[in-house]
Amino acid sequence: MGDVLTLVERAQEVVNVEQAQKLEAKLRKSEFTLEDMLEQLQQVQKMGPIGQLVSMVPGLGGMAKEAQAAVDRGEMKRTEAIIRSMTPRERRDPSILNASRRRRIATGSGTGLPDVNRLVKQFADMQKVMKQLSTMRGKGLGGAFPGRR
To answer: pLDDT tens-digit profile of 91-100?
Structure first.
């Protein structure tokens, strides 16, 4: 429990309660955007080395080295660069990203088209999971958003 408590303390130092409540409302309504994802990445980075944070979560200790390796390879920086290379409209609605927009984003972020495509797919997958969680919550399964009824 000591590691979890340390993780919670770090989160409390970094996370603004009002922002967290707004994010929760967006998640409940399935309105999570790439702008929100970028904000969350930045908040996690402020909490300290990713590998150290992951190792504090019970059951995820084995993933800590891989998480830190991803950061060391610059994957979070690439993700941030890709999102920042998008227009505000593209961040809010990635479904408008056609081939020419994706090429422009790749060029602007200094990454390749496969990197942009991977991020868009990962984001779409995240949205599906969040939508399923909010649907489960709506059916009274309760566990999707603990502490709220």
So the answer is: 999 999 999 9
Q: What is the CA radius of gyration of the chain?
A: 17
Sequence-distant (6+) residues with CB within 8 A of 29 are 134
- What pLDDT, in 10s, does the model give residues 41-99? 888 777 777 777 777 777 666 676 777 777 766 788 899 999 999 999 999 999 999 99
Q: Topology of domain 2-138, per CATH?
A: 434 Repressor (Amino-terminal Domain) (1.10.260)
Domain ranges of the chain: 2-138
Whole-model pTM: value is 0.69
Length of the chain as a residue count: 149
Tokens 């059951």, residue located: 59
86 φψ region: left (φ > 0), alpha (ψ -120 to 50), beta (else):
beta
Interacting residues of 149 by C-beta distance below 8 A, sequence separation 6+: 142
Output the six-digit token pair for 3. Answer: 């590691």
